[in-house]
Specification:
Length: about 350
């Protein structure tokens, strides 16, 4: 096997990424080396590409990006027994420490010492990626390969949707980026009644319809809260799934939430968000929950079950497919908010 491989890397503290030669990762006794078949670009990768304030504080170049992928196990370390070469896998890219307070409580997704592969250490935009064996998720062969590459954001959606009651519930999804769009499909698959969606981008509103939203609103052009209240007999929705991180969307989401409802917040605002706690949370008796990552590994079990049952049609999400070296096209397309998920192929395009 060659000692070097091609990888998409952040080489310097500044804008852009470069397609580089890098050493094939050396695995430890408890690690697995995966040959990446399909990878997918996350909004976080766009932030790192653009070198925004968050990236400047977090990313330490040089580092290979990429945390959404699937592939085939190439080889395993000598202590690894549950995974073998040839297995078709994805992975939980949040690596927990196993010994902090939350890890001991079985809440590894909010570990105090979390490290993210593809952000804090070399990731999957490469021919090979090194993963701790305990983070590997073996994929059922019934799951299509392109779905295997987006389990990380799908897991965010499943975690959020299933963080409270959903069957028979009215739902508002604020923000229809890839994760909001997936949440619409998951909520419908899990039996929610009316799913409302708000989104300011026209292309994404069209995609929200395709993913199964019943009522899609443009909050920049109409009073979305008034419409949702009117459609729910003045009551509001049972569940708010906040997927935008936009302060206005968050505030509107709370106004549209019914008394006794739950607000599950996944979107990450870049500034502090003023809320009317008295009227929109306390007097409403609302349940507010922050959602981070995916539950390890309850979310993965639920997501696999939904996919195996054929309950999720995610096809409308998929846009272009490019070899890894054509990453510039893909990043430009995504920055314009035009595409859903763009897939990159580090080891050749599928036949
Ligand atoms: P995205 O940026 O592609 O999607 C956000 C969408 O919100 C965009 O389509 C945007 O047009 C829309 N939007 C903006 N203002 C709006 C408004 N006022 N009303 C309605 N919609 C509005 O992001 P994504 O990749 O789908 O991720 C969704 C959010 O979740 C982001 O904030 C992301 O940072 C965050 N995130 C959180 C976690 C976590 O673990 N908590 C994990 C991944 C992503
Ligand atoms: Zn921990």
């Amino acid at each position: 096997m060659a000692a070097t491989m091609k990888a998409l890397r952040k080489m310097n503290a500044g804008r852009g990424l470069s397609f580089e030669s890098a050493p094939v990762p050396v695995i430890g006794a408890a690690d697995v080396l995966v040959r990446v078949k399909t990878a997918s670009i996350c909004g976080t990768d766009l932030h790192i590409y653009g070198w925004d304030r968050w990236s400047q504080g977090r990313i330490k170049p040089p580092v290979t990006l990429g945390h959404e992928f699937c592939g085939v196990v190439e080889r395993v370390g000598q202590e690894v027994t549950a995974v073998e070469s040839g297995d078709f896998v994805s992975a939980e890219m949040h690596v927990n420490c196993g010994h902090c307070h939350q890890c001991r409580l079985g809440e590894a997704h909010i570990c105090q010492n979390l490290r993210i592969i593809g952000i804090d250490q070399d990731g999957a935009f490469a021919e090979f990626v090194k993963i701790p064996a305990s983070n590997i998720w073996k994929l059922d062969p019934a799951i299509p390969e392109h779905y295997g590459a987006i389990l990380d954001p799908l897991g965010n959606a499943v975690h959020t949707v299933l963080a409270g009651p959903i069957a028979g519930q009215t739902v508002l999804v604020t923000g229809c980026g890839p994760i909001g769009l997936m949440s619409i499909a998951v909520a419908k698959a899990c039996g929610s009644s009316t799913v409302f969606a708000t989104e300011t981008n026209e292309n994404r509103r069209a995609m929200a319809k395709k993913m199964g939203a019943d009522v899609v609103l443009n909050p920049a052009a109409e009073d979305a809260v008034a419409r949702i209240l009117a459609d729910t007999n003045g009551t509001g929705v049972d569940a708010l799934l906040e997927m935008s991180g936009n302060p206005t969307a968050i505030q509107q989401g709370f106004k549209a939430l019914r008394a006794g409802g739950r607000a599950s917040l996944l979107g990450i605002p870049t500034e502090n968000v003023p809320l009317d706690l008295v009227n929109d949370v306390i007097f409403k008796g609302a349940t507010v929950q922050g959602i981070y990552g995916r539950r390890m590994y309850g979310t993965w079990v639920q997501m696999t079950a939904l996919l195996k049952a054929g309950r999720l049609n995610l096809e409308p999400l998929f846009g272009e497919r490019e070899p890894l070296e054509k990453f510039e096209n893909a990043f430009l397309k995504l920055q314009g908010g035009l595409a859903g998920k763009i897939l990159l192929y580090p080891n050749g395009m599928p036949r």
